[in-house]
């Protein structure tokens, strides 16, 4: 009888403990749970948007996602994983958000969700100052370096053909630029801000940028989410708010030294 009472007492105590634990613990890992730290993945080889400085991932995109997450009420941790792994992680839902100057397009929308746009970009051509290349049309008989899996690659494939041996694809844009510097390519095609910043910061290398609006479409960057993510609505709202409250302009000016013109970006957010 005493054994039974003792056993019963233990069961009741255990049950109360479980109920107490359930009542006080915070969930972690549920999508949209503001108590957890969201995992943000990037390819930190695309200055000034994201790059590594003394082991830390920094850049415009990093300041931007931190500001937007704070506005939305979330905590985030940004990790460098690389360009292709970034998409794998978001598709597999092992990461919550991808940010890496990612262009919104219909092909990617089939697999992922995007936030409203937050940046306007276009592809441009980077060449040596003494190059005979004057337009995208002149690339047709030249060796062109691009970052694999980007819209720059897609744009050059339309010009040269996807299987053209003169199209050199690299893991990141830094390697594409190194190929140009080493004489292994005649040009690099990439997002304008990235190669413009490189030329500005490396004047002794004697590179110039060519714009060809007829050949390259305007593009808009967005945050990348797994399909059906519940985070999208909160981050869409927060992106618009940081653009209205002046935080976006402050971050933009820090990295690009000019005030942003958000007319076209905001028009795409409707």
Structural write-up:
The chain is α/β, with parallel strands linked by helices. It is built from ten helices and 14 strands. It has helices at residues 2-24, 60-72, 83-91, 106-109, 151-160, 173-181, 192-201, 231-244, 247-256, 263-268; strands spanning 37-42, 45-46, 50-53, 56-58, 75-80, 97-98, 112-114, 119-128, 144-147, 167-170, 187-191, 207-210, 218-221, 224-226. Strands 8, 9, 10, 11, 12 and 13 form a six-stranded mixed sheet that branches.
Search tags:
270 residues; alpha/beta; three-stranded parallel beta sheet; globular
Topology:
Elements: H1 2-24, E1 37-42, E2 45-46, E3 50-53, E4 56-58, H2 60-72, E5 75-80, H3 83-91, E6 97-98, H4 106-109, E7 112-114, E8 119-128, E9 144-147, H5 151-160, E10 167-170, H6 173-181, E11 187-191, H7 192-201, E12 207-210, E13 218-221, E14 224-226, H8 231-244, H9 247-256, H10 263-268
Parallel strand pairs: 1-5, 1-6, 9-10, 9-11
Antiparallel strand pairs: 2-3, 3-4, 7-14, 8-11, 8-12, 8-13
Helix pairs in contact: 2-8, 2-9
Task: Estimate what percentage of residues fall within beta strands.
Answer: 15-25%
Structural class: alpha/beta
Instruction: Give the biggest sheet.
Output: 6 strands, mixed
Low-confidence stretches: 1-30
- How large is the radius of gyration? 24 Å
Number of helices: 10
**In which range does the helix fraction lie?**
40-55%
User: What is the overall pLDDT average?
Assistant: 89
Strand segment tally: 14
